[in-house]
Each structure stands twice: as structure tokens, then as C-alpha cells.
Amino acid sequence: xxxxxxxxxxxxxxxxxxxxxxxxxxxxxxxxxxxxxxxxxxxxxxxxxxxxxxxxxxxxxxxxxxxxxxxxxxxxxxxxxxxxxxxxxxxxxxxxxxxxxxxxx
Amino acid sequence: xxxxxxxxxxxxxxxxxxxxxxxxxxxxxxxxxxxxxxxxxxxxxxxxxxxxxxxxxxxxxxxxxxxxxxxxxxxxxxxxxxxxxxxxxxxxxxxxxxxxxxxxxxxxxxxxxxxxxxxxxxxxxxxxxxxxxxxxxxxxxxxxxxxxxxxxxxxxxxxxxxxxxxxxxxxxxxxxxxxxxxxxxxxxxxxxxxxxxxxxxxxxxxxxxxxxxxxxxxxxxxxxxxxxxxxxxxxxxxxxxxxxxxxxxxxxxxxxxxxxxxxxxxxxxxxxxxxxxxxxxxxxxxxxxxxxxxxxxxxxxxxxxxxxxxxxxxxxxxxxxxxxxxxxxxxxxxxxxxxxxxxxxxxxxxxxxxxxxxxxxxxxxxxxxxxxxxxxxxxxxxxxxxxxxxxxxxxxxxxxxxxxxxxxxxxxxxxxxxxxxxxxxxxxxxxxxxxxxxxxxxxxxxxxxxxxxxxxxxxxxxxxxxxxxxxxxxxxxxxxxxxxxxxxxxxxxxxxxxxxxxxxxxxxxxxxxxxxxxxxxxxxxxxxxxxxxxxxxxxxxxxxxxxxxxx
Lengths: 105, 551
What we know:
The complex is a heterodimer of chains A (105) and B (551). With 105 residues, chain A is an alpha+beta fold. Chain A has one domain (4-95). Chain A has three helices and five strands. Chain A has helices spanning 4-7, 50-62, 88-95, and strands at residues 16-22, 28-31, 37-38, 67-77, 83-85. In chain A, strands 3-2-1-4-5 form a five-stranded antiparallel β-sheet. The radius of gyration of chain A is 14 Å and the shape is globular. Chain B folds into four domains: 6-105, Alpha-Beta Plaits (2-Layer Sandwich); 142-291, Sulfite Reductase Hemoprotein, domain 1 (2-Layer Sandwich); 306-397, Sulfite Reductase Hemoprotein, domain 2 (Alpha-Beta Complex), CATH 3.90.480; 412-548, Sulfite Reductase Hemoprotein, domain 1, CATH 3.30.413.10. Chain B has 18 helices and 21 strands. In chain B, strand 6 (127-128), helix 5 and strand 7 (168-171) form a beta-alpha-beta unit. In chain B, helix 6 (226-240) crosses helix 8 (260-274) and helix 16 crosses helix 18 (541-548). The A-B interface holds A 1, 21, 23-28, 64-65, 68-69, 87-89, 92-93, 96-103, 105 and B 26-29, 32-33, 47-52, 80-82, 95-99, 342, 344-346, 349-352, 354, 399, 417-419, 421-422, 426, 428-429, 432, 478, 480.
């Protein structure tokens, strides 16, 4: 996972969000425009410039009690405005494992 | 089984109390994540894609039925009803909540299980042969020495902040089931020309980004000198090992850069100053540890009881027996391997219900003992041969009688991108597809022994470098690709595999593996020439040609 520190140098190439894991249970969460966190990607704040991305990340990292490991991740915006993960890793984080399990997850 | 004493129990309980306080302070904000990270890692807690992952140690792969039931309880109470057995005799739970971790640790501590030495830059869980103490021809039970090393290394202040993690493995059999040559220190119990028992010491093995096979640093070290010699190695490593670059910090890099002769000379100099000091092991100490391992009261039983003769008429039973039942040091008994590689299943996973049921079967048929192997399978180490038919029926009912041990579908795989924050590509679905392709038992038997290992990134938790066929997931422009190596092996003849050509796409991997296997069947000199021996005889070229001629 690319650490937030390393991401200071990163320029985003398209719409992006900030995601992390919730501290108390590790659940996947997304930074919202209201300076909070949501387990739903649809509630994530979208940033479109590198400056905005870095600002959103800085604000997210500052919430060390609520979230851990915050980083910028790419997303795709569909024609009807839905937010979709921008890569397989984020798709798996949102939707869960891609494999058949021995027990129902 | 090894019986913990009061010191062990106190240590484990104090550790739980300490971690409970650390978690409380983390959740209140008193500790930042930067401050807390090392503390959680020292208790086996990682942060993965979906949640925290909790890695629990199973020292030298030995579990009691009571302990296995407790692992089932943790899977059910704190996780999602299953656990994943790893390639280093640990079990991982994938969905643990940080707030509940102290309770899970406390529940485990009641049965003498903990998560110390499962993470961090310290000495890790000491692993051994999963057939230790029951394998025919074994020099002696290597777990005695594993336990001595476990006690010596656990929370050792000098070795709790090493340049990088540090792994030991020990075997006492001619056939190495503990993969000692790919460990930082590998130990092989053997007898010298005078008939004395001691250790061949290997150093500098390891996989990951820069793989090396371990080199013999000293052909024979007496048991009484084991700790002082090992400490001399670790002191040289601690002094010279690089701390400026995480990728060059393992002892294998130091051994490679200094050269084994120079490294050995440094160790020898260090050792000579301390070998007769406080680390010299008294026989009394060794005997005390030895005395706390209990062995079953075996009966005198026939090798071929009527129950077994009768059951041999059932081809399904025979398929399982010939695949999964292995000779035991005591006549009338057998070691039974339990495959955790069902067709279409995630390698190494077991449900809480399976763990509970297997614990019951261990009580009924194996003196309450279970073993965990680095191949991500389990074993019942003391089964009376007369009980094999009944055991097989019971295992079959709970989905644990897949007769594919050491065959092409007995795949070692890391969690990969489905779980792991370090992974570049998925491992488990590749393994699942391959188990479907090679589900036919007759075909698998025709192919014979063939180990496929899959890693989802260069960190190589799936040991792909030493798979007969190794599969490494990489990412190219956001897409999963896989590099294929062949000819690796992890046993006493350990070798690193050779890359056969350019990486292939996710959807092509299973076809490529089928091509490689078909090429082997056509090329092997005789039906009992193993895949890995055919590769050694012919090199990779014929396989490369077969795979890439049409791609």
C-alpha cells in the first residue's frame, strides 16, 4: 500500500477519493465532503486536482483516532454519476473477496 | 505435546494484559497509529485490505485438540467462521476487530496459544517438521530443540529489534519437510562420524525479492553449543546487517555480500569468545524440556489389521489411503495427512466447524494431537491403522478427505490481493481454478508429485521460488500478470526455479500450467520420473517452447 507520505509526490490522473480503515474494527471507509467517514463509496468526497487530493488526504490523516492508513485512490464516475472503484484493489476492498469461501462471508 | 509451565503461562497472560492496555490507549487516542503500529505487530496484528488480520503462532506445528477447538472458537466468535493456515505454521484470521482482539488473545492464552513472534523485526515462530516425533528414521524429536529455541528467542531483548525479521526451521529427518534451506537459520539434526548427535547449521536462506538457498556455515554443532552458536550468528547479523534499506536488511544479503567464508569467520570469532559461557546448555536443561513432551501410550498392533484389509476393497478409501497415509515409527500406527486443498477451495482454509470436528477426531483417533505443516495441510500423527477406515469416513463427511496430498492440486498459495495489502495480484482464484482443472484423481496420480506454489507479490509468502511450478503475480498497467518459474524445490535438494518467459495474463495462467504439465507427460523418461527431475534433466527450454510457441 502506498503510504500517505509517499503520496505527497503523487499527482492524480483523474477523479480520486481518500480511503482508509476504521480504527476500532478495520472496516473500509471513505472520506466524505463533510469531514467525516462513510463505509459507502457513494458518499466519498471526489477530488479532481492534485492540490485538492493532497488537502483531502492531509485532513484525513489528521483524524488518527477514527481512521488508519488513509491514502488517495482512483475512482471512475459513470455516465449516471455513480462512483466506481478505479482499480481491482479498490474493487476488492469495496465488494469483498473475489473467491468462493468455505463459509458464507 | 509440550506442557507449558507456570513461567510460560505467566508470560502469556501478562502479554495479554499489556496488549489490552495498549489497545485501550490506541482507541482513546492516547497512542497514535505510528506509536501503536509496532506494538500491534508484536502481537500478530496486521492491517490488511478489508480489516485487521490476526496471526497466531502454532510453535513447531503441534496443536492439542483443546487448542484447535479454541482456534475454532476464535474463528466463530471474533471472525467470520474460518481461519487460514499459513506456510509457517501459523493460523490467520482475516476479519478481527481491533477492539475485540484483547478478548480473543485472552481466550487463546487460556489454552497456551499466543501471537508472539508472528510479526515484526524479531525472531519469528520456530518451525519444524510436522511429522516430528513420529517419522520413521528420525534422529530425535526436533521439537525439543525447537522449544529450546522458542524459549530462548521469545522476547529476547537483543533480538527484538533486529534489522529485519528472522526465521528458524529445524528438521531431524533425511527428507526435509520443514524447508530449512529457505530460512535465515536452518538446522538439521544428524549424527557425526563419531555417532554423536548434533546440528548442521545453515544460514542465509530466504525467498522474497532476493531469493537465496541457505549455505552450510558449520557442518556439526553439538546440542550443548546450539544457543551460543546461534547467538554468535545473530550478533554478527545485528552488528553488520543493514538497517538503511529494508530490501537489503535480511541476513541472506549480509551472507551474500560478505561471502559465506568471511561471514563464518566472523561468527567463529564471536563464538569462541562466548561458547563456554552462560549459553552452554546443560543436559539437565535439555532433559527438563524433553521431559515436558509427552508421547502416547501406543499399543502393540498389527501392521495389516482386518479392518484395513477389508476396507481396501473400496477404491475410494484406497485412493485416500495410498495418498494421505504415511508410515509411522511405531508398528500398527500411521501418520495421516489432512488435505486443506479441496477442489475449488481456498488453499489452507478451514472452517470453525471443520476445526471442531477434527479436534473430536483427534481425540478419538490420534491421542488428541494435530499437526500443522508448512504446505498448509494438517495431520493426525498417531492413528492406529485399524482405525483408518473409520477415520476416513469421518473426514469425508466434513470435507477433509481430498486425496491430493503432494499432487498437482495440493497448491500452496498466499492470500494474495483478495486479502493482502502488499499484494499486486490475486493468488487464491488461480489456485482454485487449477484445482478444478486437475480435479480428476487418476490424472493427478498419473502426473505424480508436483508442487505448485503461488505468490501474489514479490514478498513470496507462497514460496513460489521453490515450487516445482512457481507462479508470481505482478501488476502491469493496472492489470494482473503472472510470471511462471519451473524446477524449484524446497526439500533437502532445495533449488530456485527458473523463469520460463514473459508474464502471462490472469486468464491464461491455468492454460499455461496445463501446457507445462502436458509437456512434462510427453517428455518424462519414465512414468516415475518426477516433474522436477524432468526439468532438471532437460532444462526449461522444451517447456518454454511449448508455452510460448502459440502465444
